[in-house]
Amino acid sequence: MTTSAQPAAAPLPPCTRCESPIEEGDLRCSICALPVPAPPPADGAARPVRAQVLRCTECGAAVAFSALAQAPHCAFCGATMKVEQPVDPIETAQVRIPFEVDRGEAEAALRGWLGRRGFFAPKTLKDEAVLESLTPLCWAGWIVNADAAVAWTADSDAGARRAAWAPHSGQISLRFDAICVPATRGLDHTECHLLVPYYDLAKAVDVAAPAIPGEVPATIESFDAQRSAARATIQRAIEATAKVRVERHIPGRRFRNVHVACLLESQTTHRVALPAWVLAYRYRDTPYRAIVHGQRAEVVFGSSPKDWVKIAAVVLGVIAAIAAIALAIYLITAR
Amino acid sequence: MRRSYHLAAVSAVTFTCGQCGASLAFEGVRTQTCPYCASPNFVERPPAAGQPDPTFVVTFIGDAEVARRKLHTWLGSRTMFADSALKRAKVEDIRGVYLPAYLYSAVARTDYTVQIGEQYTETETYTTQENGKTVTRTRTVTRTEYRPLAGRHLGYITDVVVSASSGLPNAELGRVEPFDLKQLRRFSPALVSGWIHEEFSREPAECQRMSRSEAVDEVGSRLRGFMPGDSYSDLAWKTVVEWESLEPILVPVWVLALRYRGDKPPLRVVINGQTGKISGKVPLSWWKIALPIAVALIAVIAVMLYIHLRGHR
């Protein structure tokens, strides 16, 4: 009845129905909901058939379960007995990917990126931009692997008759490798999806591993999600990925109303801290933000100012050119 | 039809109280509070056919006072046609019962056939009368082309809970579902001590049939959201369930009887002991329904009479 800390628990066998790993504290498989078998009773002896009374461990009085305390509570001495509570811990990172881009490289990457902002950026952007902060961030994300049988339906123009669309359906097997599901509040989803393809996950080390010489010390972002909420987010992300992946199997050139139903198997999830530099810079009193990848300095993106005079000049030039062409056509046809 | 809440009709088993030694009869329940020393007793026994040990339990959140407050709010929010005596009703015997149930999950593979409606627009000509002349006009109309589609749907069916109590029909339990199954705990007598733990009184095979039926309904609900096109008709499906799991569990319900009129049977109300969701068939007051209908009829007749008399002037 009481729980005790078990420092070195053996890994639990995977779910027999969907072969997904079972985590400590799971009562059911998080993917297919198959109950996890209970550990065998400690004594294993046949229980006598009798009426028994649960006794307070402090004073020995009979106790009942208190719905308010969510545990057996003794009405005589006020003691509350410890019982196993539902497990839904806050997620924490298991592994981290060390920074390979240092502070100087990140700043140089930003300067280089500002210089390549193109024709519509202000000419003085690279020289006048003032770097205000340069923060190393290990942002939180789930890396998911899974096999899935995916059934899909969609409308496409293949086989269309009177209507522009015809219904189609199919079933495929998909392997999801290293799908990254962001769990960060520091970066938005678009920023995460721009960073993810460039991470070398093979370089991940245990989150508690000592820092590599020269490694940038960075705050590891909290996942800010409980295990149950995390699993729901991951399921939605897998379905969204499956929806994109089935598109190539839909016949025809155009499609709409894509629906998928996934039967997931062998899903594994790793909680990873991924490195990125978050830069804040100011150009003529307006703040902007840019992100530099923590492993590859050439991956830079963010917001930058536009030179509205140049844009207006181009728009006016285009309008003038169109007007000139129209006038020329008019004069030619009027003769 | 009158229905009274009763626990499983099984013969009483007698044990001595674990505290004072008094003789206690356990009839259809596994817990009993001793009338002499007020000790909550729990029958320890090996699981047997038809009397399994629960695997999991969803515990009560809040005590009887919380349930009473929920009930009071619920009664206050009933329809205006409800019997007004309900607001003065007396709660007779509110009981927190750990209801036996089965938790079902499975892999569902479904083959379906359906007619998918795809809309298209057409321009059609028609004739109409304008200023006393017949003229031809065109208009755009939206039509639906139905195309047959057959395919497969896959998925895990989880979280199906069916009542294993012959006292509380499954449909009645369904009205206070869902339970938050993230809060499941592995069963231990400590979690039900002092509460009524009803014994399982429905056969697992019967509960499995009910579960499968709910699973097929769930598949139907998913299929309706899975269909492409602008509309659909003639949706038919056949579901094969594999890897079924049927686990005995306990779920918390408050069961109470409301006596609102001396000449009427008490109203049975069931409250979800975890979420507070309430179900009960509220008696309607027929005069409250008849009065607005009568007023509306009189108004219609008066208007028709007025129009009729005006036409004869």
Note down, in words, how this protein is organized:
The complex is a heterodimer of chains A (335) and B (313). Chain A has helices at residues 103-115, 125-128, 189-195, 227-245, 308-334; strands at 50-53, 64-66, 71-73, 95-96, 130-156, 166-182, 205-206, 219-220, 255-283, 286-293, 300-302. Chain A is of the alpha+beta class. Chain B is α+β, with helices and mostly antiparallel strands and 313 residues long. Chain B contains four helices and twelve strands; from the N terminus they run E-E-E-E-E-H-E-E-H-E-E-H-E-E-E-H. In chain B, a hairpin with a 5-residue loop joins strand 11 and strand 12 (278-280). The two termini of chain B are 56 Å apart. At the A-B interface, strand 1, strand 2, strand 5, strand 6 and strand 9 of A face strand 4, strand 6, strand 7, strand 8 and strand 10 of B. Strand 1 (50-53) of chain A pairs antiparallel with strand 4 (40-44) of chain B, so a sheet runs across the interface.
